[in-house]
Design a protein that fits this description.
heterodimer; A: Uridine Diphospho-n-acetylenolpyruvylglucosamine Reductase, domain 2; Uridine Diphospho-n-acetylenolpyruvylglucosamine Reductase, domain 3; Enolase-like, domain 1; 3 domains; 5-stranded antiparallel beta sheet; 3-stranded parallel beta sheet; about 35% helix; globular; B: Ubiquitin-like (UB roll)
Amino acid sequence: MKPPKFSYLRPNNLSEALEMLAEYGDEAKIMSGGQSLIPLLNMRLSTPAYIIDIGRVEELKGIRDEEDSIVIGGMTRHADVEKSPLVREKCPLLSEGIRWVGHNQIRTRGTIGGSIAHADPSAELPCMLTALRGEIVIVSNEEEIILSPEEFFLSYLLTSLEPNQLVKEIRFPKIKKGSGYAFEEVARRHGDFALVEVAAVIELNTDGTIAEAKIALGGANSVPFIPEGTEGFLIGKLPDDSILKEAAVLQIDELDPEGDIHGSKEYRRYLSGVLLERALYKAVERAREGVIA
Amino acid sequence: MSMNTVKIKVNGRLIVKEIESRWLLSDFLRDKLGLTGTHVGCEHGVCGACTVLIDGEPVRSCLMLAVQADGLEVETVESLAEDDGSLHPIQKAFANNHALQCGFCTPGFLMSVKNFMEIHPDVPTDEEIREAISGNLCRCTGYSNIIKAVKEAYVLKC
């Protein structure tokens, strides 16, 4: 299992990278951390003529504090996000969920933009970004555009990225006061891709009723799934155990997970309900405790 | 064929070589430099046998191209023992605790543990050790003795 032949290009800055993409886009593949691309090369599932390694493009690295969002450059490594005190304070869901991404040896190389662009429906970052209603900033040598996760993730490993575009940065909305969050996942072993995962943020009113519920499920459909009916059901309700139990299974029949040797379709559906209940419970608990004051 | 000249510091020695861009770092270390201590198991980033340190951080060398390591510093398992052959404390602890049976996975474990002990200087709990070695698979020794060895490594280090 060795990569096929390709020409290796290593731009030193973003404009060089975009020029290369414009020239070779159809035959090129962007490599950021390579933690998804290199296995695909090793197994010859991907055979690009050119690899554009954006590992040295400094403009694509780093974590910024903006008004409503934490903005993370596409080339920022998982390990840097995991260690960031800024992310822990302003976007704690991300700090919690990112520890589920592969193992330490993967997170030292893998990047946020790479995970988003790879669009594995079981991956943690697409799920968290969708739950948070974040945005993806895409750039080409012609324009810069901002897309919602729903516009960006089209299907299993398929995004709206054109051959001349790359993921510049990702905007993760900051958590609001009076909110709680939770990330729940079941994988066969620590570090494996999720069988199912749930990311949830719940905001409570001062009277204890739910002001806002933002949820996404990963691994249950070909793209991260937003259970809009469940979110709507929760708003205005006092979240006691029976309400959360009812909410968790409301849309289970709409999920369409792939069944395989690690878990049947039915099991994954059932698991989605279990994890959603746990996530809602934990998010509500945290909101009540006033973790985010 | 796409050739690239790379300058990589491997175990303290600067290596300058012209290589094909498709070479994996693991194969470069083994076949071009003869450093066969780095073992290649699954070749798609699952088993952890090929773990090396890049600028001090653990990385799977089968998921990195050698050209990506241009300008960086690589440490392999060969860097652990002293020149006179005396073992590193982590290696001694593995030997003392029968933490290796066939030894195939051991180089990856040693490099992961080396980094873990650097970023986690306080004596860890079993749970923390389990998480630290979760990216390395062992199919014959079993993990209990490896966990014992990591604990002893903390004692030997002092």
